[in-house]
Design a protein that fits this description.
166 residues; mainly beta; lipopolysaccharide transport protein A fold; 13-stranded antiparallel β-sheet; 13 strands
Length: 166
């Protein structure tokens, strides 16, 4: 009998989740709705499973393209979701910025690609050219069209000095 030790690779620990089929480093990506390009972005690394549609990415920057409105940018430390259901959870610091520089910051947000809304239940801070608002119960933000932002929970707002403004 011959025993050989240390010559085989150790199997990954069973986490209950299937490992990704592919992991990409320094990747650019595009999302389409039919033939319409709806968003473009890049990530430091990304994984994808073609059998389930599950995806994950680190250090994500995504530009939501809006044909009749200015674009909006999302940055997140991590993102995971499913390309088939068009649902993504962004975490580890989320920043949404519109073309006018209004910034929405929170720890995590859910992005619904079907309704094109970003929502979150963690505290949120919104900063614009002459204001700052904070809501302890989260937010809902329309990513296309009206860009309506709804705060949840108590809201605190500060307006900057606007003397001399019409």
């Amino acid at each position: 009998m011959l025993a050989v030790g240390g010559c085989t690779a150790r199997a990954p620990a069973d986490t209950g989740k299937a490992p990704p089929e592919m992991v990409l480093q320094g990747v650019g990506f595009k999302f389409f709705r039919g033939s319409e390009l709806t968003s473009v972005g890049h990530a430091r690394s990304a994984s994808f499973r073609s059998d389930t549609g599950d995806l994950g990415a680190n250090r994500v920057k995504l530009r939501f393209l809006r044909p009749t409105e200015d674009d909006m940018i999302l940055e997140a430390g991590t993102a995971s979701g499913n390309i088939r259901t068009k649902q993504v959870d962004a975490e580890n610091g989320v920043l949404l910025v519109d073309a006018q520089g209004t910034a929405v910051q929170t720890t995590k947000s859910h992005i619904d690609g079907n309704t094109r809304q970003a929502t979150g239940s963690d505290p949120v801070e919104v900063t614009g050219a002459s204001f700052r608002s904070q809501a302890s119960g989260g937010f809902a933000l329309e990513l296309s069209g009206s860009r309506t932002l709804v705060f949840h929970g108590p809201v605190t707002s500060t307006l900057d000095d606007m003397r001399g403004m019409p």
